[in-house]
Amino acid sequence: MQLPITVSSDADREHLFAKTVAPYALAFLVPFAVVLAAFAASGIYPFGDVSVMLYDMPLQYVDYFGWFSDVLRGDADLLYSNAAGLGGGMFSLFSYYLASPFNLLAAFWQPEDMPKFFSVLYLLKIPACALTCLTLLRGRFLAPAAANLRGARRATLAAPWWQHGLLVALASTYALSGYVLGYASNIMWLDGVIMLPLAALGAYRLVQRRSCAGLFVSCTAAVLFNWYTGYMVCLFSVLYFFCELARAEQLRGRRLATCVHFAATMLLAVGASLMVLLPTALSLLGGKGGGLVGLLSLVESLGLSHNPLAVPNLFCIGTLPGVNPHGNTPAIVISAFALVGLGVFFANGAVSKRAKLASGILFAVMASSLIFPVWTTVWSGFVVESSYTNRNGFAILLVLVLLAAEGMCRLGNLDRERRVRAIAWGGGAMTAVFAASIAATRVAKGTWLPSFKLAMIEIALLAGFTVLAAAIAHAGATAAETHGSGATDAASRKASDGSKQGAAAQSVAKPTAAAQTDAQQDAAPRIADSKTPGANLASAAGPAASRRIASAVACAALAILLVGEQVYASYLQLTPCCYPVSGYAGDVANMRAFYQQLPAQDAPDENGGIEFTRVANAAPYWGSTKAYGPDNMALLLAYSTFDHYSSTQESRIQELLAALGYTKYSPVGTYYRSQNIVADALLGVTHIVDDSAPAAATLAGTETLRGAYNLYRNDLALPLGWGTTGQTSVEWEEGQPFESQNALLNAAADNAANVFAAPSVSENDSDGTCRTFTITPAIDGPVMLYAPTLCLLDLFYDNGIMCDVYVDGRFVQTVGRRGSFNEVTLGEGRAGQPMQVSIVPLGDDSFEIKHKDGTPADTQHDFWDVDASDLLQAVSVDVGSLSEQLSRIKAAGSFTLTAYENGHIAATFNAAQDETLVISQPYENGWSVTVNGQPAELNPAYEGLMGAQVPAGENTIELRYLTPGLVPGAIVSIASVTLFGVWRAAARKRSMGARQS
């Protein structure tokens, strides 16, 4: 029988508040205050104009969040956007980047204010990590055997004060770790950091009392909030479950049944999350996802990523994470206090050997991913990491915090001398291990990492926390001084009241540490220095008071040191932040003002339909150049355009644009850098933003962007839809964009012609700083250049050989960078008039990379040693011949657009004969088409566009998009939640029946 919890006085109420509400309040406020202080020290908003944006944040996420803000206010569509790389499905982008419930707050912010909103997310998500970690630590070590909330509250109230403070401190170190702050630029990953402790607690409770709801809800929510880190949460839950299963001695004969419960819970959790997983998986099958995937990726991950002797050094304060495969430093910095606790866990004799073995194996398995990249590849979903190494680092740190908490909490089971000895040995060992790692790194690499100053600070912190913890342990009150005679045993019995193991805990008066189960050890923490708890309290009052004062001073010193360490560590992690908040807002405002010169999205045209507008913007949206990759500000401008940077983009349109010379097929996405006159016309580019007048284009606005870029109307553009009687499939030849363009044009026109003429190219003598060529056109027309060897086309992740291109001394463009693998229009050429083209290498060869055949990929081999005929492809465009081919295409039918919305296209098409209507919108599996009201087959055209057969005469065309897998995934999710509810309700009914009988 459970007795009600009674609150009889104000003192009792304060006691209840201090041990239940106050720890959670502190767990939120401490990280909040630390991050706020780091913001103030760094001048980060709201204390300055610096934003928290780092790495991919300014290139990708800030625009995604701005787009999502529009979605929440009804100004954009969640499932599809015409502005995403000529048009693309958005659900998989939402499910990876934006599904966190925290992001609903974006509705209260304008898109241009997203850099400010990121500061708010930091201040909410980071403390949330501490709250969930504290929930795990309290459930695991203060109320491990509690059967329900009442029992947990009783056990929590019975726990000594120092354990509450200890767990708050350790939860804060988890929230303020290098992973959270170093990888917070991937703001969507923090939801996995938040949910992981709850999933671990769910796995523990399933082992202890077969309570499945916590694990089911936490794993389902983790996947729904971010499926990528949700996968890691589920994988960790499996490992942690088996660790707890191995530790639980009381499960003899019931382990198999417990495993069945766990497997069923995890399967149903995966089923419940299929409303996100299924459509996302189907989308990623059509997207690039990233390089090698599946088991083949493990072959690419063989070897060692770090010297095992250097691994402890990775935890050093101030170590900044590596965000590319060449700078593979993981983000696993954590407080030296937690590291001391890890040492105490293994030095503490109150922790059973069984617990040390099982938990030690778990920690070794987790930490092995710091050494073996094959294990890291498994954690990253069987995809070789292209950036942000050791993405599972938050799981490593959670295990470390768990062991530290257990090691320190179990100090209460030891007498004063053994407590001090355990802390001294544990902290001393960690200090020695770290010092040895620093020395080994210094010898191996000839330098101090991250620096001599920071290494010395880390050693001082380890020593300082060890000394202060030992001082607190030495000054700690005995059980008699704290509670009086018999108080400890009474508190222990009260803590276990209402739990499934209460009777077992009370049946043994003074169990030894070796004989107790983990749950019993945790449920009955005690500080026992005296074998006679009933000793004379009066005689001990003086020493007890002195020790209490000494303990309070040491605790205050430790708290000050911990907070100071965390503020400094957070400041160091935020030092790379430099992008201004006002700069982004200004760029958005300028782009919007410039785009007001474009026709309205639903402006009527001369044929009674609406005007179609597709913008090819060669100007940078944000920052000073596009050479380092595209961004996604086009999502905020809502016009169809090329620029889109996302891991979820449809691969077919990427491959098409790469074949036509716009981009390279890579993780960087798609972009527009220079006029591509033939392909622009075929893809319906109606307007071009460029710093020089494009060929066959007229000025369309008076406003100037960035002082150099103007808006031009492309006079050659085809409509969004056009007919063809030719082939709708073309074999692309890699690295031959001009041949691919001509093949596509001929197939669309159903007429063989060559709109390109080859100029004469001769190389001049080199002065060793660049290679110079004389290009003499054979005809009048735009001259275009492509340098395939600079693109390193056989390498998916790596950059190319970065070079600047000059024509007659005028800078044209940077090529060979992640955002500039494109053909370049050099300008208008005149027959017989030579052009001097210089290519100046800028490449950084400090990272050793190789081609797939094993040869070096560097400036020497791919620029200097390459023949001119292999380095350069140059052509002149016969604009007259091109116009004739385009006229043949237009003659195949008249296309009138009547609706162009996100995920919905409607038009009429008067076909000259039975033919294929090509819609220059990227093909995706979610599209369906009706022709004259009847469903028709929609097929890929030219590998990346959409095509449908239409009969001769007037046709009404309508296309609609629905995310593939969304409906069946939702059905399975509902069924899984229902099945779980029925299963647990039946189990509860059986359990209640058994108790009544």
Q: How does the SSE layout of this entry go?
A:
Elements: H1 10-42, H2 56-72, E1 80-81, E2 88-89, H3 91-98, H4 114-141, H5 149-158, H6 161-175, H7 178-182, H8 190-209, H9 213-225, H10 227-247, H11 255-272, H12 274-286, H13 296-299, H14 336-347, H15 353-367, H16 373-379, H17 393-409, H18 416-445, H19 452-475, H20 479-483, H21 487-495, H22 502-506, H23 518-523, H24 537-574, H25 581-595, E3 614-617, H26 634-637, E4 640-641, H27 651-659, H28 677-682, E5 687-690, E6 697-699, E7 710-714, E8 721-724, H29 737-749, E9 756-757, E10 760-763, E11 771-776, E12 781-786, H30 788-791, E13 803-807, E14 810-815, E15 824-829, E16 835-841, H31 859-864, H32 868-871, E17 873-877, H33 879-890, E18 893-901, E19 904-911, E20 915-919, E21 927-931, E22 934-936, E23 938-941, E24 945-950, E25 953-961, H34 966-996
Parallel strand pairs: 3-4, 3-5
Antiparallel strand pairs: 1-2, 5-7, 6-7, 8-20, 9-17, 10-11, 11-16, 12-15, 12-17, 13-14, 13-16, 18-19, 19-25, 20-24, 21-22, 21-25, 23-24
Helix pairs in contact: 1-4, 1-6, 1-24, 2-3, 3-12, 4-6, 4-8, 5-21, 6-17, 8-9, 8-10, 9-10, 9-11, 10-15, 11-34, 12-34, 14-17, 14-18, 14-19, 15-17, 18-19, 19-24, 29-33
